[in-house]
Amino acid sequence: MSDNKFVKIYNFFAVNNYLIVNDIEKADIVILDLCWVWISFLNDTISKIDYCLSKNQKIILMWCITDTLKDKYWDNIIYIDTKNYSIFEVYFDFIVPLNRVDSYFSASKINLLDTWNHVWNTWYSLEDNFNKKFFIEISIWCQLNCSYCNIKKVKGNTKSLKKEDIINEIEKAVKDWKTDIFLLSDDCWSYWSDIWTNLVELLNAIFEISDEIMVYITNIYPSYLVKYYEEIKKYIYADKIPYILVPVQHYSPRILKMMNRAYDVEKIIGVLKDIKESSKTELHNHIIFNYHEETLEEFVETFKYLNYYSKTFYFKHSDVNNIYWKNHISYDLDKKIILLKKLQKKYSIDIPLW
User: Fold this and answer.
1) How many Å separate Cα 35 from the centre of its chain?
2) Is residue 103 situated within a structural domain?
3) Do 62 and 127 fall into the same domain?
4) pTM
5) 184 is in which domain, residue-wise?
């Protein structure tokens, strides 16, 4: 979701004739698009901000990490959070506003950047027929309370786009031959809690628009997939949902309980098995490893179901100052990394942003 918005902002500068440079030494304005938080990554970011401030560069800090750094820099940086990114226009001269840049450039414009972005590389292995793709943010925030996550603190209460507005936008996209519809949200099944609808109703309405439509679900809490699977599996069997991210995060009941993600893994695997055997849907997974007191044996548990996924992303846990757990104790990190690298040869495993 942050990548999608960053693309719009990148295109905003491009279409309004700003010179975009990759060398920080040549920049008057530095924009940091930061969503993931590791302690080492956070420290590197702070060093970069301090350097830019010493050169009197204007710094724009975007997305979830903004709240982590507000107290430190306060008035010296422009902060733009994920809910209010349209205020970006307040700070810059422009002819083409943010809400019109997509008509000038496709989202693939981001590929002009000479940078490595893991999520972008993953999604845009789908780059064939890119102009058929349409991205729409159906909600922000997540109704869950996972102990490792700072989304709730940063974003506050759920804000969902009305079903009617989503359908109107998708109808316009379909008229422009954009039939690959990507639903964006911190958790797609959290779309409902503030507007008294749910994802099933939304999917039914979307598929009524056109037989050509394909829907990509970019994040879904596993237990909700199990709960409502009977209602949506007709679309999966018909190969109308080519992609679902189902972030199980771990398979150890003890670790899941500490994460405040207590669900029945075997039921989830039953659904994933059915999807794999009955459709062409590509399943992706997230695993958090080295979580508090995770043993080597518990880490090995995360390998059990890799064959059900087309790709699994392993994120190394790192403490930040606004989650519940404060004392980070884990075991055998070196051995875990060695095992992961061996598994990469057999399974499609990615380890983003070491």
Assistant:
1) 9
2) no
3) no
4) 0.82
5) 116-350
In this structure, the answer to whether residues 223 and 302 fall within a common structural domain is: yes
Mean pLDDT per 10-residue segment, the chain (354 residues): 74 85 87 69 82 88 71 81 73 85 58 41 49 85 78 70 92 93 87 75 96 94 93 96 95 92 91 96 94 90 93 82 52 87 89 66
- For residue 204, what pLDDT is reported? 96
The per-residue pLDDT for 172 is 93
Q: Report the 10 Å Cβ neighbour count for 290.
A: 19
Number of domains in the chain: 2
- Sequence-separated contacts (24+) of 333-342 with Cβ below 8 Å: 333/290, 335/296, 336/289, 336/290, 336/296, 336/299, 339/299, 339/300, 339/303, 340/289, 340/314
Both 336 and 193 in one domain: the answer is yes
Beta bridge partners of 79: 61
Q: Are residues 243 and 310 in the same domain?
A: yes
Dist. CA 192–CA 151, nearest whole Å: 17
Hunting for tokens 């809910």 — which residue is that? 83
Q: Which residues pair with 135 in a beta bridge?
A: 182
Residues 267 and 151 reside in one and the same domain: yes
